[in-house]
Amino acid sequence: MEGMEDDEQLQLASAAGSTTYPLQCSCLRKGGHVMIKQRPCKIVEMSTSKTGKHGHAKVKMVALDIFDGTKKEDLCPSTHNMEVPIVSRNDWQVTMIQDDYVTLMNDKGEQKEDLMVPEDDCGAELRKQYEAMENANNDKFILTVTVLTCKKVDAEKIIAVKVQGA
Q1: DSSP-derived secondary structure letter, 15
Q2: Is 87-164 a CATH 2.40.50.140 domain?
Q3: Which of 53, 75, 139, 151 could form a disulfide with 19 if both were Cys (CB 3.0 to 4.6 A apart)?
Q4: What is d(CA 78, CA 44) in angstroms, rounded to the nearest whole number?
Q5: Where are the domains of the chain?
Q6: Which residues are CB-contacts of 19 (< 8 A; sequence separation ≥ 6)?
């Protein structure tokens, strides 16, 4: 990065470690993510009011928190920026469930032991499939989960269970 000004290097460094990015409200879409009340949410409804006599068109959003499912609403001028969280999905192989915690391993061999089995339908399915895997005692039976991660709020959640082999 020779020849680059110190200010430009600082901007590049801070962008690489960012957990959100700005997006004009009018560019947000149903099914996309947005931060509402400091929580990462998935937009389920959007409506835009017409430009009024004294201002901008307004966008009304209804969204669900991606980790706890609570409903959030926001109203924002269409030309203003909103924060969009960087959300990732990764698949992990289940190696063990002990009490309420699941031990996972990714394709690089890294382990994760700090995730709890969710208390929803996904968690019930995970426990059921893990028990079936244990009872089958078959090495070809692979149980994987998809983990949703948002570093902005330092949260992770198991959102899907997949069974391969059998």
Answers
A1: H
A2: yes
A3: 151
A4: 17
A5: 20-85, 87-164
A6: 85, 86, 150, 151, 152
Q: Assess contact for 92 and 111: CB atoms under 8 A.
A: no
pTM of the model: 0.80
Domains 20-85 and 87-164 share a fold: no
Specify the DSSP element, H or E, that contains 63.
Answer: strand 58-65
Matching residue, tokens 């969204």: 63
Q: What is the pLDDT of residues 130-160, one digit of tens each?
A: 998 888 776 778 999 999 999 999 999 999 9
Joined together, the tokens standing for residue 58 give 């307004």
Closest CA to 61 of 74, 48, 49: 74
For residues 92 and 147, what is the distance between their CA atoms, to the nearest angstrom?
7
CATH number for region 20-85: 2.30.30.30
> Which stretches within the chain are classed as H helix?
6-16, 121-136
What was the pLDDT predicted at 13? 40
Listed range (11-25, 71-85, 130-144) with the worst mean pLDDT: 11-25
For residue 112, the model assigns a pLDDT of: 94
pLDDT digits (tens, 9 = 90+) for 92-108: 999 999 989 999 999 99
